[in-house]
Design brief:
With 334 residues, the chain is α/β, with parallel strands linked by helices. Helix content is 41%, strand content 10%. The strands form 2 sheets. A 6-stranded parallel β-sheet has the order 1-7-8-4-3-2, sandwiched between helices.
């Protein structure tokens, strides 16, 4: 099956309200991400790993899913995806500050290991790409139960070098499972560029080797990603099996709060990144279409900041986990 470049999203029939909602979702993801980095730099959040630059991909995919029906097995950059699926800024700030009320892990796991029973989001381990096999298992469960749910799982292009990724795609294609394999390709695995990671030009060049369709898309174009994701979800629901989506994103921040990308990326490359900011692209498109004005864009930003401020106040005041519970959920109890 050939790699297909995505068609322009002309066929999309999204009204202005939905487009504005998607824009707000991207802004909320960005501002919350920035807030978590600030908390890290203040020494209050132990770790931050940024999704800045990936928002269009995640919101485009998230809006193709049926909320609280479909499932996700995300990776650490998927902040905007889990927000679209129903998690809140408060959920993530409780996690960032390691509070007892953190729904992801009760303040135990590193931040960015997203988990929500209520919104069908499955937590993962930290070893890269282990989540891929979990998603395939979720897809198999849907098949056994005769449900038409879909599960999306994500990783970076570096994650596709792991054996788990290859086994997962192979198995899902053989059994035509309703899994969407999203690769958020930002060109780097920490400091390792894509060319040192694979000898093919596109991750989707490998799709034919497993017998599933692979679609390459501009991950900075929220509507293009959305169209590709809508088609992949429809295919999976019809029982026609998995799709591999490779979305080319920019990584605007360093790999994580423990990294400094100025040590391995050229200054020109870093300067150029900002001209590919997906939020600016969508804002300009919406303004050109007469759907958004600069005043309205400023109001969306202020509204998102107010939501994050309110959430942070609650998270600040929330209790830390009781030290006596530190070993709970580690070994079998009772
Ligand atoms: C099995 C394993 N090896 C190495 C690491 C350390 N590690 C964490 S993230 C990462 C890079 C992953 O890059 P990529 O999959 O391209 O995703 P990105 O972070 O660029 O979004 C590495 C090497 C790990 N967590 N697990």
């Amino acid at each position: 099956m050939a790699v297909t470049e995505s068609a322009p999203p002309a066929a999309l029939d999204l009204g202005p309200d939905t487009l504005l909602e998607m824009y707000r979702a991207m802004v909320l993801g960005r501002l919350l991400d920035e807030r978590i980095i600030i908390l890290n730099r203040q020494g209050r959040a132990p770790f931050a790993i940024s999704g800045q630059g990936h928002e269009a991909t995640q919101v485009g995919v998230g809006y193709a899913l049926r909320r609280d029906y479909d499932w996700a097995v995300p990776y650490y950059r998927d902040l905007s995806l889990v927000l679209v699926m129903g998690m809140s800024p408060l959920d993530q700030l409780l996690a960032a500050l390691g509070k007892a009320g953190d729904p992801n892990s009760g303040g135990r796991q590193m931040p960015a290991h997203y988990s929500s029973r209520a919104h069908n989001i499955v937590t993962g381990g930290s070893p890269v790409a282990t989540q891929i096999l979990h998603a395939v298992g979720v897809g198999l469960a849907f098949r056994y139960r005769g449900e038409d749910r879909v599960v999306v799982t994500a990783c970076g292009e570096g994650g596709t070098s792991e054996g788990d990724w290859h086994e997962g795609l192979n198995w899902a294609a053989v059994h035509r499972l309703p899994v969407i394999f999203l690769v958020e390709n930002n060109g780097f695995a920490i400091s390792v560029p894509q060319a040192r990671q694979m000898a093919v030009a596109h991750v989707t060049d490998r799709a034919a080797g497993y017998g599933l369709p692979g679609v390459c898309v501009d991950g900075g174009d929220v509507l293009a990603v959305h169209q590709v994701a809508v088609e992949a979800v429809a295919r999976a629901r019809r029982g026609e099996g998995p799709t591999l989506i490779e979305a080319h994103c920019v990584r605007l921040q360093s790999h994580s709060s423990d990294d400094d990308q100025r040590r391995y990326r050229a200054p020109d490359d870093l300067r150029d990144l900002r001209s590919h900011d997906p939020l600016d692209r969508f804002r300009v498109d919406l303004e050109a279409a007469g759907i958004l004005s600069p005043e309205r864009a400023a109001a969306v930003r202020a509204d998102c900041l107010a939501e994050i401020d309110r959430a942070q106040q609650i998270a600040d005041e929330a209790p830390a986990p009781d030290p006596a519970t530190a070993l709970h959920h580690v070994h079998q109890e009772g």
